[in-house]
Amino acid sequence: MAAANNPLVRTEQKGRVAVLIIDNPPVNALAQAVRIALQEQLALASRDADTAAIVITGEKGSFIAGADIREFDGPVLEPALVRVLETIDASSKPVVAAIGAVALGGGAEVALACHARIAADNASLGLPEVKLGILPGAGGIARLMRLADPAIVLDLVASGRSIGVAYARRIGWVDEIVPAADLLPSAIRLAESLIGKPPRRISALPVRGTDEAAFEAAATRWAGRARGQKSIETVVDAVRSARTTGFSQAVERDFRTFVSLRGSDQAAALRYLFFAERQALRIPGVEPKAARPVKTVGVAGAGTMGRGITIACLKSGLSVVLVDTDSKALERAKPAIGEGLKRLAKSEQWGAAEVERKLASLSTANALDAMGSCDLIVEAVFEDEAVKRSAIAAIGKAARTDAVIATNTSYLDVDRLADACPDPARFIGLHFFAPAEIMRLVEAIRSKASSPQSLATGIQFARAIGKAPVLAGMCEGFIVNRILAAYRREMEVVLEEGGLPADVDGALEKFGMAMGPFAVADLSGLDIGWARRKRLRATQNPPPKFFPVADWLCESGRFGRKTGAGWYRYEDGKRMADERVSLLIERASAEAGVTRRSVAAEEIVQRALAAMLKEAAQTLEEGMALRASDIDFAIVNGLGFPAWRGGPLYYCDRHGLASMADSLEKRGSVPALLHRLVGEGKRISEYAQS
Ligand code: CAA
Q: What share of the chain is helix, strand, coil (3-state, %, to 5)?
C-alpha cells in the first residue's frame, strides 16, 4: 500500500495487515495532531484494496497514555476522540489493538473500540480520568461494561487505578496475553486470523449482568468517598445509568459530561496537581540518571514504619533484608507483613502464588551485618535522636561503601543524624507517611552533606516503589508536619476561643479534608506530639508555649485511637465527642482568661487555610521547598487536603490571596514573600525558587 505516512502515525504494511504505529513521545498522548493522523491512516487503510485487517499499536512496543492533558485548558479540538473511535468501531476490516506498556484513559478507550485486544505480559490498563476531574468521554464506560461486570467497571473508573494484564484478561478487557517481545508478530497473526470474519464490535454487545444489590452497595460506597469530588460522583452515575441505556445514548451522554467536567475548576485543580507531581522531580543539580540501581533494600527496625516500608518494597518486586535486634519484634513483623501483602493482593488482584513469591524476597536478621548486600538501607528505628544515631553508626559500618543510607524521620535533624554516618555524603532523609505501604508521599530530605547521587538514588528508589517524592529542606517537620503543626496550633486557638474538636474537624471535613487535625492526631498517637513538645521545651530558649490540653490528655493516658481515647473517645472504632475533653478545653480557656464564643464553620476553614498559607509562604521564603506546587502536592497527599481544590496555595490564589493576607495581617504578621507576591498581583501557587 502506498500510505501517505505521517510522522505521528505511520503505517507499515505486513502482507494484508496494515500496522498503524503511533509515535508521539514521550507517552504517545492523543494530541489533536495524533487524532487527525490516526483518522487519516485509518481512512487510507480502509480504502486500500490490499489491506484486509488493521493493527493499532505504539512505537517501541508501547501503546497510548491517553489524551494530551495539556489540551484540556482550551476547548475540545476536532476531531474529538469519541468520533475517531466511531471510525474504528465501524470499520468493516477487523481492527486489533496491540497493547504494550500502558493503555490509559483515551488510550484504553482506543483499545476498547478495536475488535480485538492483545497485550504484552508487562502492560497495564486503566481509566484514570476521575483523577483528572473528568470521566472517560470516548465511550470507555459503555464499551467496558459490555466486556466486564459493571461492578468491576465501577471500581475501575471510580478509583482510576491501573490493572495488570492478567486481571484485565480475567475480567474480559483483553483477549490474549503474549510475551512483550512477541507482541507485534502475535497481533499481526491475530489480525490475519480475523480476515473475512465479521468484526466483533463491542458496541453491539449487551451490557454484562451484575449482582444488582452488590452493585448498588458499591455505588453508594463510592459516592460516599467522593468528599465533594464531582468526577467521582459523576462516574458513579455514569456507570449506574449505562446499565440500562442504549450504547449510543450512553456514549453521547458521557461525552457531553466529559466536555463539561473538563472545563470545570475541579478538573483544572487536579491537572495542576498532575503536573505538580512531575515538576517535583525536577531538582537542580540532581539528575535522575545519576541514581544508582536499587534491587535489595535494607530496612532497620521492624516497627510499624519498618513493616510498611518493607511491604511497599516487596509489593514492587524488590528484595528486602529486614533487621531488628529485638527477635520478638521480628517475629511479630513477619506475619504482619504477610497479612499486609495479602490485603494488597485483594486490590492488586494477585493470586496466592504471587503473594508467596513476593514474601520469598524478604529475609530477616537480628544483626545489621546482614545488610552487607543492600543497595539502599532505610533506618526506621524508634524516633529518638540517640537511638537513631547509634543505629545509623552501626548501619554505616555494616553497609557496603557505596550503599545509600536513608533515615525515616518525621521531625529529627537530618544534619545531626548525618554526623553519625561514617560517610555523610551517602546519607539522606526519606520521610514516609503512615501507613507506608499505602501513602504515596515521601519527603526526600537533603542533609548538608548529601551528595546529588545519593539524593537521586533515594528519589528514584521512592519512585520505584510507587511513591511520589517531594524534596524538603532541613527544618522542623519538613514540609507536611511543619504546616500541620502550624495549622493545628491555629485550630487549638479556635478551641481556646470556644470551638470543640468536633466543630473544627467537622468544618474541615465538610470542606473536603480527609480528616480534621484532632482526628488525625488521635490516629497518629498523641504521645508523638507530646515527646516533641517536651523536646522543644528542653531545647528552645525561651521554651515555646503550647495549648495545654494535649499534654493533659497524654498525662491521663489518652494517646488517641490506640488507647481508645484522645481528643475523642472511641466506641467500636467510631469516634465520639467526649464531655471530659470539652471540660478540659473549657478549663484551658478559663485559665487563659478567654470568654468562650461560638466559632462558625466558615471562620474555622478560613483560619485553617490562612495558617497553612502563612507557614507555606515561610517555608518557601526559607528555601525549604523548591516551589509552591511541591507544597500543594505534599499537603494534598500528606495531609488529605482535597485534591479537587488543588492544595492550599492553589486554593488561596483562587479565593482571594490578598484578602487572606489582609486577615493574616490583622491577626499578626504576613511573611515578606506573601506580601511581595500580593503587591505584585502574582499567584503564590506559581512561585518557584529562581
Ligand atoms: N498528556 C500530556 N503529557 C503527559 C501525559 C498526558 N496524558 N502523560 C504524561 N505526560 C508527560 C508528563 O507530564 C511528563 O512530562 P515532563 O517530562 O515534561 O515532566 C512526561 O510525559 C513523562 O511522564 P511521566 O514522568 O509521568 O512518565 P512515567 O514513565 O513515570 O509514567 C505514564 C508514564 C504512566 C504514562 C504517566 O505519565 C501517566 O500516568 N500519564 C497520565 C495518564 C492519564 O492520566 N491518561 C488519561 C488522560 S485523560 C484521557 O485520556 C481522556 C480522554 O482521552 C478523553
A: 55, 15, 35
Amino acid at the residue 41: Q
Q: What is the dihedral of CA 321, 322, 326, 331, to 10 degrees?
A: -110
Beta carbons of 92 and 43 less than 8 angstroms apart: no
Residue 624: which residues within 8 A CB-CB, separation 6 or more? 472, 473, 474, 475, 478, 479, 482
In tens, the pLDDT along 369-382 reads 999 999 999 999 99
Ligand 1: which atom is nearest the Cα of residue 66? 50
Average pLDDT, the chain: 96
Range 613-640 average pLDDT: 98
Q: Tell me the three-class secondary structure of 559-601, residue by residue.
A: CEHHHCECCCEEECCEEECCHHHHHHHHHHHHHCCCCCCCCCH
Mean pLDDT, range 164-175, rounded to an integer: 96
Distance CA 79, CA 84 (A): 7
Q: How confident is the model at residue 529 (pLDDT cuts 50, 70, 90)?
A: confident
Specify burial of residue 243 (Cβ count, 10 A radius: 0-12, 13-18, 19+): middle
What is residue 3's predicted lDDT score, i.e. its pLDDT? 53
pTM: 0.95
Q: Which three cell numbers stand for residue 494?
A: 479556635
Ligand 1 centre and the CA of 146: distance in Å? 27
Over 50: is that where the pLDDT of 335 sits? yes
Confidence class for position 596, pLDDT limits 50, 70, 90: very high
Please name which of 111, 4, 20, 1 lies closest in space to residue 59, comparing C-alpha atoms. 20
Q: Is 410 a catalytic residue?
A: yes
Q: Count the Cβ atoms, other than its own, within 10 Å of residue 690.
A: 3
Per-residue confidence (pLDDT) for residue 281, from 0 to 100: 97
For the chain, helix (H) and strand (E) counts, in that order, are 28, 19
443 is catalytic: yes
Please write the tens of the pLDDT for every residue from 13-29: 999 999 999 999 999 99
Tell me how far the alpha carbon of residue 69 lies from the centroid of ligand 1, in angstroms: 8
659 is catalytic: no
> Is any ligand 1 atom within 6 A of the Cβ of residue 102?
yes
| Alpha helices (H) along 419-500 | 452-464, 480-497
- Sort 302 into a burial class: Cβ within 10 Å, 0-12 / 13-18 / 19+: buried
Q: What three-state secondary structure class fits 540?
A: coil
Q: Is 620 helix (H, G, I), strand (E, B) or coil?
A: helix
Q: What is the mean pLDDT of residues 21-41?
A: 97
5 is catalytic: no
DSSP character string of 46-84: HH-TT--EEEEEEGGG--B--B-GGGGGSPPPSSPHHHH
Handedness of CA 238, 243, 244, 248 (dihedral sign): positive
Cβ(487)–Cβ(481) below 8 Å:
no
C-alpha cell at 671: 511573611
Q: How far is the CA of 103 from the centre of ligand 1 (A)?
A: 11
Cell 545509623 maps to which residue? 392
Is the distance from the beta carbon of residue 105 to the nearest atom of ligand 1 less than 6 Å? yes
Strand 319-323 with 404-407, pairing? unpaired
List the grid coordinates of 152.
468491576
Cβ of 68 closer than 6 Å to ligand 1, yes or no, is yes
DSSP symbols for 313-366: HHHTT-EEEEE-S-HHHHHHHHHHHHHHHHHHHHHHT--HHHHHHHHTTEEEES
Taking residues 35-60, report their average pLDDT: 97
> Of 91, 319, 408, 410, which one is the catalytic site residue?
410
